[in-house]
Amino acid sequence: MASDGTAKTRGSAPYYYEGGSSMVEEERRWKPWLVPLILIASVVVFIVEMLINNCPKHPSLYGNCVVRALHRFSFQPLRENPLFGPSSSTLVKVGGLVWDKVVNQHQGWRLITSIWLHAGLIHLLVNMLSLLFVGIRLEQQFGFVRVGLIYLVSGFGGNVLSALFLRNGVSVGASGALFGLLGSMLSELITNWSIYSNRAAAILTLGFIIVLNLAVGTLPHVDNFAHIGGFITGLLLGFVLLPRPQFGWMHRHDLPQSSQPKSKYKPYQYVLWVISLLMLLAGFTVILVMLFKGKNGNDHCHWCHYLNCIPTSKWNCDSN
């Protein structure tokens, strides 16, 4: 949706099923409950959005409410919001990401609240399906603590980058967090490279999905900076939070002394862990300082706006 009084939505991360392992050791399998809880919370928040929006009580210049039989839960006119959702003013009211309110009005909490908001029923449906496909498998393998951290920190990271580059309109959506989960899947594949049998096919498939979704983000009305920021954050967090112990570590006490691994992780896993943690800390520090000093990221990167929207003969990006 456009930024001239409407909301900018974010795309969604796709499903990717990782290939089987040739020598994965026995490990604990968690029962997923956090991902379903996030889904339920997002649906409840959307219901609250529509309750507050109350389209019949706030006539629109774009026409009549859609599905008026829902009364106060009816949607804004499709010319205003084609995703079947509330108005942009409602999204601002309930915590949408707006640069001016974050920087000049010191409402930094919007960097978190906007993760839980959705611009419409279609936006919510696509994101929640993606969350189920991606998140359930990750939570089963790595537990709710690590997956929850990746989800929230990636969503925050996506919002910080978005606010640094986009000063107009209101941005909402969970896809920065979803792209963070996707990024963590890639780093998990890399850092645990030796345990997978079909590595090339897995990384090519995942790489194609990542490139495709980031390319879709260059269309108008999509906040691709949130996608990129979330993906990079999740990628680095995956190296920090998702390394698996090297083969033999879990059963080292049953192995001969000469065959026991000397450390829990391989040397390259420790190197990736340190580098990723330092990059995360440095990146967040620099970007947050720039953001709250009122810096415009476009002044320091004159081509970066093409990452968010590529103008064509059919549309321009001035109102994106």
Notes on the structure:
- The model is unreliable at 1-6 and 13-26 (pLDDT under 50).
- α5 crosses α9 (267-292) and α6 runs antiparallel to α7 (199-216).
- This protein has helices at residues 34-53, 88-93, 99-103, 110-113, 121-165, 175-191, 199-216, 224-241, 267-292, 297-300, 305-308, and strands at 7-8, 170-171.
- The protein has 320 residues and is mainly alpha-helical.
- A two-stranded parallel ribbon has the order 1-2.
- Helices cover 52% and strands 1% of the residues.
What's this entry about, in short?
This protein is 52% helix and 1% strand. It contains eleven helices and two strands. The protein has helices at residues 34-53, 88-93, 99-103, 110-113, 121-165, 175-191, 199-216, 224-241, 267-292, 297-300, 305-308; strands at residues 7-8, 170-171.
What are the defining features of this structure?
single chain; 320 residues; mainly alpha; two-stranded parallel ribbon; 52% helix; disordered N terminus
Mean pLDDT: 86
User: Biggest sheet: strands side by side, in what order?
Assistant: 1-2
Treating each run of at least 4 consecutive H or I residues as one helix, how many helices?
Answer: 11
Low-confidence stretches: 1-6, 13-26
Beta-strand residue percentage = under 5%
Task: Note the gap between the termini.
Answer: 8 Å
Radius of gyration: 21 Å
Name the structural class: mainly alpha
Order of helices and strands: EHHHHHEHHHHHH
β-strand number: 2
Indicate the topology.
Elements: E1 7-8, H1 34-53, H2 88-93, H3 99-103, H4 110-113, H5 121-165, E2 170-171, H6 175-191, H7 199-216, H8 224-241, H9 267-292, H10 297-300, H11 305-308
Parallel strand pairs: 1-2
